[in-house]
Design goal:
Helix Hairpins; 12 helices; about 0% strand; NTP-PPase_MazG-like_N; NTP_PyrPHydrolase_MazG; MazG-like_dom; ATP diphosphatase activity; EC 3.6.1.8
Length: about 270
C-alpha cells in the first residue's frame, strides 16, 4: 500500500478504524469480499468472535484477549458502516444510544438515587428498568424480547428466569430433580417407540429441565457445558497420546483400551 495513503494520517483509535471500514466497503476502490457482505452474512462471524472472546477469558489467555476483542469490535464497526450506507444508523448513533441507555439504567450513579444498594437490589432495579423499556416497545408479554438467535441453553435459562420473576418456578431443588427423573423416563419410552419426533421432543424437555437445575444451583449451563467440552477434549487427547506411544491410533484400539487410557487421564488430573 502507498505509504502516503490517507489511512496512515487518520488519528489512532476509533477514527482510524471507522475510516478503515469505510475504505474496505467503498464500492469503487474497496475489497470485493467486504463490499459483498450483508448484515446476514456477517452475523455468524459476530457470534463466532464473541465465543472466541469468551474462550480466551475462560482459558485466561490474556495475551490472546486483546486480539479477540479487536476482532469483536470490528464486527460492530462492520454493522455500523452497513447501517450508515443504508441510512439506518451509524457508529455515533450506536454509541449515543447505548450511552443514554446506560445512564437511564444507572440512576444510582448518574441520577438522584442513592448508590448505597446491594448488588442484588441493583439487579432487581435493572430488570425493572428493562421491563419498562420492553413495555414502551409494545413487548408486554413476560417472555417478549428474549432473542430467538441465542444459543438454546442460554435462551432456555433466560426464559426460565423471566418466568420465575412472576412466580412460575419450582421452590425446591428436589422438585427439579424429580422432574429430571420423570423426563428421563419419558425419553426412554419415546426411544423405545422409535418415534423420532417424540424422541426429539422429550430430549428437548430433558435439556430444558437440566437448565432449570443449573439455574437453581446458580450455574451457567453454557459455561458448564463448555467446561465439560474442554475436559473431554483434554482427556481424549491424552488417549491419543497414550495410543501413539504404542504405535496405535484410536481406530486401531479397542473400546477397553481407550476406556482404560481415559481412566488414567482422569486419575492424573485429580493428582
Amino acid at each position: 500500500m502507498d505509504s502516503h495513503d490517507p489511512i496512515y494520517d487518520t488519528p489512532e483509535g476509533l477514527p482510524r478504524l471507522l475510516q478503515l471500514m469505510a475504505r474496505l466497503r467503498d464500492p469503487e476502490t474497496g475489497c470485493p469480499w467486504d463490499v459483498e457482505q450483508t448484515f446476514e452474512s456477517i452475523a455468524p462471524y459476530t457470534i463466532e468472535e464473541a465465543y472466541e472472546v469468551a474462550d480466551a477469558i475462560e482459558r485466561e489467555a490474556w495475551d490472546e484477549l486483546e486480539d479477540e476483542l479487536g476482532d469483536l469490535l470490528l464486527q460492530v464497526i462492520y454493522f455500523a458502516q452497513m447501517g450508515a450506507e443504508r441510512g439506518l444508523f451509524d457508529f455515533h448513533r450506536i454509541s449515543r444510544t447505548i450511552t443514554d441507555k446506560m445512564i437511564a439504567r444507572h440512576p444510582h450513579v448518574f441520577g438522584p438515587e442513592s448508590n448505597e444498594k446491594s448488588a442484588e437490589q441493583q439487579t432487581r432495579d435493572w430488570e425493572t428498568q428493562k421491563a419498562s423499556e420492553r413495555a414502551r416497545k409494545g413487548e408486554g408479554g413476560v417472555l417478549d424480547g428474549v432473542a430467538q438467535g441465542l444459543p438454546a441453553l442460554t435462551r432456555a435459562l433466560k426464559l426460565q428466569k423471566r418466568a420465575a420473576r412472576v412466580g412460575f418456578d419450582w421452590t425446591d431443588r428436589g422438585d427439579v430433580l424429580a422432574k429430571i427423573a420423570e423426563e428421563t423416563a419419558e425419553l426412554s419410552e419415546a426411544a423405545d417407540s422409535k418415534d423420532r419426533d417424540a424422541v426429539e421432543d422429550e430430549m428437548g424437555d430433558l435439556f430444558f429441565v437440566l437448565v432449570n437445575l443449573a439455574r437453581h444451583l446458580e450455574i451457567d449451563p453454557e459455561a458448564a457445558l463448555r467446561r465439560t467440552n474442554a475436559k473431554f477434549t483434554r482427556r481424549f487427547g491424552a488417549i491419543e497420546q497414550h495410543l501413539f506411544q504404542q504405535g496405535k491410533t484410536p481406530s486401531d484400539a479397542s473400546l477397553e483400551e481407550m476406556d482404560s487410557a481415559w481412566n488414567d487421564a482422569k486419575a492424573a488430573e485429580r493428582n
